[in-house]
Amino acid sequence: MADSTETRKEQRAAARAERARQEAARERMRRRLWILGGAFAAAVVVVVAIVIATSGGSSTPKKQAGENVAGQKATASLLAGIPQKGIVLGNPKAPVTFVEFADLQCPFCREYTATVMPSLIRSYVATGKMKMEFRNVAFIGTDSVRAAQMAAAVGQQNKLWTYIDLFYANQQTENTGYVTDPFLRKIGSGVAGLDIAKAMNDRTLPAIQTQLSQAQQLWQSNGFTGTPSFLLGRTGGTLKPLSVNAFQLSQFAPKIDALLGSQ
Mind listing the domains of the chain with CATH numbers? Predict the structure, then answer.
């Protein structure tokens, strides 16, 4: 009888441990998913996971001839002629401001960057209608912090957007320790005119930590808990959270057009 009682205790303990493990896994997924709603959110989790798994998100992309790092030519073409200043891409006097909060390790951020952002840049930023701000939050792990510090240091040379686009193109599996100094230098080698040694040294500047802390505070103060998250509004006015339920241009363009039409 004692053995039977002990067995039941062990089974209950094992069941509790399994429930705790499953809840921890669900919480990790919730933290990585930008805010969606209800049953649709669950569907998106499954779909995005399949897309990432089948698109080789953690594999090493292939370089084209003449590239130092994969994606170099596509990034250069996308951002050609568009001014960069610190965290800002585009004309600082553009009538609309679009803010992205992102973690450079986040696969959902990479998905947005690959599927929607190029169209937004071509339609609105390159034409002077909208400027973009990149607010780097680092909540996934140590690799996120190292990536954010380097990206911010590159921003001191006004080349942030080129760097982060290349980082996403070469993103690997999160929290595997891949964000090493050699990896950061490799991404930097694809940024024309970047002083890589200076950027590596600038990572510890107080201004870098201040910038990252401010991004984190702004992210939290707007009630965001995942990435990517967005703010949108008239430049100089109040920016409000932009809620989307898919990485499609149709989720962004009408809201931007409405602001432009209100000038």
Answer: 54-261 (3.40.30.10)
